[in-house]
Design goal:
Radius of gyration of chain B: 21 Å
Oligomer: heterodimer
Shape of chain B: globular
Strand order of the largest sheet of chain B: 1-3-2-4-5
Largest sheet of chain A: 5 strands, antiparallel
Order of helices and strands of chain B: HHHHHHHEEHHEHHEHEHEEEHEHHEHEH
Strand content of chain B: 5-15%
Helix content of chain B: 40-55%
Shape of chain A: globular
Radius of gyration of chain A: 23 Å
Largest interface: A-B, 84 and 66 residues
Distance between the termini of chain B: 45 Å
Structural class of chain B: alpha/beta
Number of strands of chain B: 11
Structural class of chain A: alpha+beta
Number of helices of chain A: 18
């Protein structure tokens, strides 16, 4: 409950009693969220770091602005989230107001000619992709999955999905936004309004989000213009298979290659060749361990059964350096050309068919569906019981990525031997190139029992070790710290131009009343 | 077997708020307009109204961190218990979380703690008094069959025991429908009988609002009636009854030891055997609404009393393997087969169909306690039906039919709603 009853009354009047709640039961449903322990916003048992004062559901920008002004007047901290996957959007100050943007859920504009859409916060990536596909377009869906907010990933967070080769990633797809600043002022730029054109540019980009995003720590984004990209497939996909893991029939103009390379170096070579030739629509590395989970079964039980079969077939070691390549063409001739180039790249790099005895037609259709809809990544949350860790989220050249990949495999070993991390046969990195360049994102997922605090602490030690490696080897790319932990910022800032100082200045300028919830933006206060 | 809410603590933590309980299964999303799957959060909007929110709220409840409140009870009960969150969550969580079981366990706890809603207490009291949720006289239960000359299965041996269900037994508007089914079975030469005034509610309406004792009692009654009748098949036109017999009774440990069939399954068989034929054309575009209790919740129950163990470090697997309820094995094709067999009738699908069907709003005690929510849910489905260009909607559940008709009347809008038997009779 909010301490200031006058403020509570004013907030309730803004949205109506149906959309404002201080009830402990309502509030309790907001406080258990994935990554909570890892990013330091959860309590001892992974739950209830703070008691929120209230939850509020605005429907318009005016309402968000009014909420912000009331919070400023009464010095009440607030934080907004959109679809709410991950604790990054969770308000962390005691007695603060959690803004749930669920009621702001419209696709305001889908401009197929100029290839962009204007959306509100609660439009999911898949909702936009579904509507865009009807017009021969597609949007970038981040790896966190189809039901994440497209606005959140473009304005406030970092994410990277299968199609980045063509669609870049959403931090770079923002063509405009409407932003309610912590003070309650509304700031707009770019394509979010009719008649305006342009891009925020690097200065404004750094101010409002930077590479990683502010996780809702600097006001509320209420609209975003998002870039769309050509979609080469049919406007409606034909679904195959049975619930719960369905597939899509693969159209004739699309070919997918599942490749295994003799070593990491050759995998890196293939990525350079593929980006140089610009023949692919998707290039994505997914660790061997996660194939059974994504497309060869429906549960951990199935996953483990398939994994044992892969192990028994002696297929683990030779399939660790994996790459999935999708090519798409508008004509038979184009397809033939691209297939020939693929053949050459395969020959040059010594690639073999990935998991040859396991990739049936059914499995390939399921994987194709997953590549397009990005609806299976959240299966990671079921592996060890509700949470996961990820580290080394970097955007850099792939020769550096391959170097890091090799090193992180070795770093994982002792943690697996100690019983901290799940044994994923050492390979846990996924990602791929973006914008047809040999530059892209890789991250390394890791899993322990999230209910055992001492194990989670050791998991964090592993994550720190990977960042220390990046510091020591000068492999700090531009996407560092996307895990969203302000504490990590403090370690890394001095190696990256003291960016934390700039963030502190930005916050002081935009939030003079110290209203915003900056734990994930600046880290714990000293 | 029934577990307590506390027994699901680990499953509650397993939910990472990925949102799959809110949206249609991704491969089936066809538009933003019909992209949602949970009526409850569309009504209440706070995360607590989603299954994920209820799991997290339950976590707090069992730890004594949140007290009961009116708002909390609204969150618990403003849900139609349609099971969509259960089957959709499987896409990512597999067999790890049993949403439908947890939502029921939450309601059972509320009732145990004396927190039942007055509207639901009235419903259960009616059952206790008259063996039906409407409080209608038990003595009149068999009146619907008057003049049909049906066998009394409590006194005569039959091959098929026909369970009419509460809605068909007492709803005057639906009387022709249930009589139509009985006439059809007679014409096909089926050896069947009814229990008449001895028939009782299946009890699912009580179980759904947290009263387990009532359903357990009715399950025992039904087991006795089946045994007395000597029937090899139990056929019902009520999808609530079907779900109770197939899924909920085994869950509470009662096996009826008889083949359970929904009437559409049975008629579909007769159609295949040539014992049911259609002569007349119905030149209409019709869409079919999958009742939740016939579809997702019509899948047979498989018990599991195992435990979770860790392999490869901390990967959780079930031991013995926990059955995976997908909803895929409910009754979806038989009603469609019937409709497709009617000359001239063009069956068109709504965007959300089969496992991904949107609920009608009538279930889970929502209609009794939160009628606006139930009506709104029904009208959302009507909008979806209209969007197909269909002239009417057919269903095979009396609760859905009643819900749609009442919601249409309340809203003043017009749209044809049929029970499949209405179309069968026109086509014969």
């Amino acid at each position: 409950m909010l301490e200031n009853r006058e403020a509570a009354k004013m907030l309730e009047e803004i949205v109506g009693s149906q959309n404002f709640s201080e009830d402990p039961a309502i509030i309790s449903s907001y406080t258990l969220q994935a990554f909570g322990v890892l990013i330091g916003v959860a309590g001892k048992d992974g739950y209830d770091r703070v008691k929120l004062g209230a939850v509020i559901l605005p429907e318009t920008t005016d309402e968000v602005q009014a909420i912000s002004k009331v919070c400023n007047k009464y010095k009440i901290s607030f934080k907004a989230h959109s679809t709410g996957l991950g604790a990054h959007g969770l308000a962390t100050k005691p007695g603060s107001v959690q803004i749930d943007l669920r009621r702001m859920n419209r696709i305001i504009k889908l401009d197929d000619k100029n290839m962009f859409a204007v959306v509100e916060p609660y439009v999911s990536a898949l909702e936009l992709a579904t509507e865009a596909r009807k017009n021969g377009l597609y949007c970038h869906i981040i790896g966190a999955g189809s039901h994440t907010s497209i606005l959140a990933s473009t304005t406030s967070h970092l994410g990277y999905g299968h199609s980045a080769l063509i669609t870049s990633h959403n931090a770079r797809n923002c063509l405009g936004a409407e932003w309610v600043l912590p003070t309650g002022e509304v700031f707009t730029w770019g394509l979010v309004d009719d008649g305006k054109v342009g891009h925020p540019g690097p200065g404004l980009y750094g101010l409002c989000r930077g590479q990683v995003g502010t996780f809702g720590s600097l006001g509320v984004f209420t609209k975003a213009a998002v870039k769309l990209y050509p979609w080469p497939g049919p406007t409606e996909m034909k679904v195959t298979g049975k619930s719960p893991t369905h597939g899509f029939e693969i159209p004739d103009n699309i070919k997918i290659y599942y490749l295994a390379f003799p070593n990491t170096e050759r995998l890196g070579d293939a990525i350079y060749e593929l980006t140089e030739s610009q023949i692919a629509y998707m290039v994505w590395a997914l660790p061997l361990f996660f194939f059974p989970q994504r497309c060869m079964g429906n549960s951990n039980d199935d996953h483990y059964e398939v994994w044992k079969k892969i192990e028994a077939a002696g297929a683990i070691h030779k399939n660790l350096d994996q790459l999935t390549v999708m090519i798409a063409a508008r004509s038979k001739e184009e397809l033939a050309y691209k297939m020939q180039v693929m053949k050459d790249i395969i020959n040059e790099t010594g690639a073999q068919e990935f998991l040859a005895d396991f990739m049936t037609k059914e499995v390939e259709e399921k994987m194709f569906c997953h590549l397009i809809q990005v609806h299976k990544p959240c299966t990671e949350f079921r592996l060890s019981g509700g949470d996961m860790g990820t580290t080394f989220l970097q955007i850099m050249h792939f020769d550096n990525h391959m170097k890091a990949k090799t090193a992180i495999r070795e770093m994982q070993k002792p943690y697996v031997d100690e019983g901290v991390l799940i044994d994923v046969a050492q390979e846990s990195g996924w990602g791929g190139p973006m914008e047809q360049r040999p530059v892209g994102h890789m991250e390394y997922v890791n899993f322990t029992n999230p209910l055992k605090r001492e194990l989670v602490k050791r998991q964090i030690d592993f994550i720190r070790e990977t960042y220390q490696y990046a510091i020591d080897e000068k492999l700090l790319g531009t996407g560092t710290v996307a895990g969203g932990r302000g504490e990590t910022d403090k370690v890394l800032s001095k190696y990256l131009g003291n960016y934390l100082q700039y963030k502190e200045k930005i916050r002081k300028a935009l939030d003079p009343n110290d209203i915003s919830d900056a734990l994930l933006y600046l880290g714990e206060e000293e | 077997m029934l577990k307590k809410l506390e027994d699901y603590e680990r499953e509650m933590y397993w939910c990472g708020r990925e949102g799959y309980c809110k949206w249609v299964n991704a491969p089936f999303m066809k538009s933003k307009r019909f992209s949602k799957i949970c009526p409850s959060i569309e009504y209440g909007n706070f995360h607590a109204y989603s299954c994920s929110g209820r799991l997290h709220m339950s976590w707090s409840l069992i730890r004594g961190r949140v007290p009961y409140s009116d708002k909390m009870l609204e969150v618990v009960y403003a849900c139609t218990m349609c099971g969509a969150c259960d089957t959709n969550c499987r896409v990512i969580m597999g067999n790890s979380i049993s949403n439908n079981e947890i939502l029921h366990a939450l309601r059972l706890k509320c009732v145990e703690d004396g927190q039942a809603l007055p509207e639901h207490v009235m419903l259960v009291e009616s059952m206790k008094r008259e063996d039906n949720p409407f409080g209608e006289p038990k003595a009149k239960r068999g009146d619907w069959a008057e003049g049909l000359g049906l066998k009394n299965a409590t006194r005569e041996k039959v091959d098929v025991l026909f369970h009419a269900g509460c809605r068909y037994s007492y709803d005057e508007d639906l009387r022709d429908t249930v009589r139509g089914y009985a006439i059809l079975l007679k014409e096909a030469g089926v050896d069947f009988g009814i229990a008449g005034r001895e028939e009782a509610c299946c009890g699912l309406r009580a179980f759904d609002v947290g009263f387990k004792g009532e359903m357990e009692k009715y399950a025992e009654d039904m087991m006795t009636r089946v045994a007395t009748s000597g029937a090899t098949k139990l056929v019902t036109p009520c999808s609530d009854g079907y779900s109770a017999f197939k899924y909920y009774y085994p869950w509470v440990g009662v096996q009826l030891n008889v083949e359970v069939l929904h009437i559409t399954e049975y008629l579909s068989r007769l159609l295949e055997e040539g014992k049911l034929r259609f002569e007349k054309e119905i030149p209409e575009r019709i869409t079919y609404h999958d009742p939740c209790h016939l579809g997702r919740l019509g899948e047979a129950y498989e018990p599991w009393d195992g435990e979770w163990k860790e392999v490869l470090g901390h990967m959780c697997i079930s031991d013995p393997p926990k059955p995976l309820r997908t909803g895929e094995n409910g009754i979806y094709d038989p009603p469609r087969n019937i409709l497709k067999s009617i000359p001239g009738l063009k069956l068109v699908e709504m965007e959300r169909n089969r496992v991904n069907s949107w609920c009608c709003g009538a279930g889970g005690g929502a209609l009794e306690a939160f009628p606006d929510f139930a009506y709104g849910t029904a009208m959302e489905r009507i909008e979806e039906a209209k969007a197909t260009g269909a002239e009417g909607l057919a269903t095979s559940c009396p609760w859905c039919e009643r819900m749609f008709k009442d919601a249409l009347e309340e809203s003043g809008e017009k749209f044809k709603v049929y029970d499949i038997i209405d179309l069968i009779r026109r086509a014969k």
